């Protein structure tokens, strides 16, 4: 497991102190050390790996970010499993590998690979907001400006820019970002969902693809139904859409996959009041935040349907934590054959700590386990 180490992990006891002075936990010289920065945005965790040497070497050798994503998944997936899965992580954990320089970053301040319990994502808005703060506080932007600094990030889906408050010493909130071109991939699509019958969904792209429908179509209420029931129903929709609708991405078929389903309260028309949703992605993973890429896709759908205008800001609320993001379409764009928009999403990201994880080679569960 190639990751940046810290300390020698050893040291001799002073004898009389009964172990005093010994660095804990003990580890063998071959045991890996994984150092992380812990954050959350709207309640959704982000475990940042500031440096993964294998990824840096591959980026320096000329791999693009999408190619690097495939490389890490194929050859270094044990890092993801060790940090996302139990016992170090949990079923709702999310992470990001920071990549600096090389072909992967392509002129950005940093690139990022997004990790979750089932694999790798193409875009993550809550992570972008947290990484914007991280980039400033950890000196990845050479000359930050006050009162706000633009942080250029390269995500697997393409370049995005985060705008981060900066007082000359530390970053602040709220953080906003401008998305890749977002578009409506399909609207009013009839899907047959086993156990629920026919439902009508919209499919939007905000750096990754989501299916959207009101929870009411499934006999549920996004605000009051049991989370387990919402997760099961959303997952059934995801599987049905995958089987019944072929996705297409204008630039790369690597990005043409349905990430999950977002159940809403059905309040898509413009309003000053928040609209509530729950995002169920990957392998039944639940986003604690309103979902940055999901807000991006939902705003694109609302703009496509004429329900909002450019510059009209909407507030989106997570049904799990009550946390809020705002989103608005700021500019029209063209993306392949799609009429698209650039979406601005805003939220608050906070540090929760730092961690040093060790891996003992003889541990049969050293690379984690996934329990649902």
What does this structure look like?
By secondary structure, this protein is an alpha+beta fold. The chain has seven helices and 18 strands. The chain has an 18-stranded mixed β-sheet that branches. Helix 1 (53-60) crosses helix 2 (65-75). It is globular and about 60 Å long. Residues 4-18 have low confidence and may be disordered.
Q: Count every helix, treating DSSP H or I runs of 4 or more residues as helices.
A: 7
Distance separating the two termini = 25 Å
Mean pLDDT: 93
Give the radius of gyration. Answer: 21 Å
Instruction: Give a quick account of the main beta sheet: strands, pairing sense, barrel closure.
Output: 18 strands, mixed
- Determine the structural class based on helices, strands and strand pairing: alpha+beta
Percentage of residues assigned to helices: 10-25%
Q: Please state the overall shape, judged from the principal axes of the Cα atoms.
A: globular
Tell me the strand percentage band: 25-35%
Unreliable runs: 4-18
Total E-strand runs: 18
Q: What is the helix/strand order?
A: EEHHHEHEEHEEEEEEHEEEHEEEE
